[in-house]
Amino acid sequence: MSKKEIVVSDVEKEHDNPIAELVQVACKFDSEIILESNNRKINAKSIMGIMAFNPSNGMKVNIVANGEDEAEALDAMEKFLVCE
User: Fold this and answer.
1) Cα(14)–Cα(37) distance, rounded to whole angstroms?
2) Do residues 32 and 65 touch, judged by C-beta distance below 8 A?
3) Can you give the pLDDT at residue 56?
4) What's the whole-model pTM score?
């Protein structure tokens, strides 16, 4: 299991449809990917979960990945959320 805390950048300015695009990034990986913030945990592959979670500018988020490609999944999610 890999875990990293990040601060979300302004994803709405960087991406046309950030919620759907974030789910698409997560779905590229076999690993389970969970986003945690303020005692909430959601599956990053769930569009309804991401809509409810609503990652926004300045939000502190823990990305937790567990599986064979967890390191790659963690990096991809971080790059998307911090707009690198």
Assistant:
1) 21
2) yes
3) 87
4) 0.92
> What token pair was written down for 61?
């988020």
Polymer length in residues for the chain? 84
Closest to 2 in 3D by CA, of 76, 59, 52, 82? 76
Structure tokens at 2: 């890999």
Q: How far apart, in whole angstroms, are the C-alpha atoms of residue 6 and residue 78? A: 7
- Two tokens, residue 18: 């950030």
Q: Which pLDDT score is estimated for 12?
A: 81
CA 67 to chain CA centroid, Å, is 15
Q: Any idea which residues carry the catalytic annotation?
A: 15
Q: How many CB atoms lie within 10 A of CB 35?
A: 25
Residue 50 has a pLDDT of 93
The C-alpha R_g of the chain, in whole angstroms, comes to 11
Q: Write down the pLDDT at residue 83.
A: 83
Domains of the chain: 2-81 (3.30.1340.10)
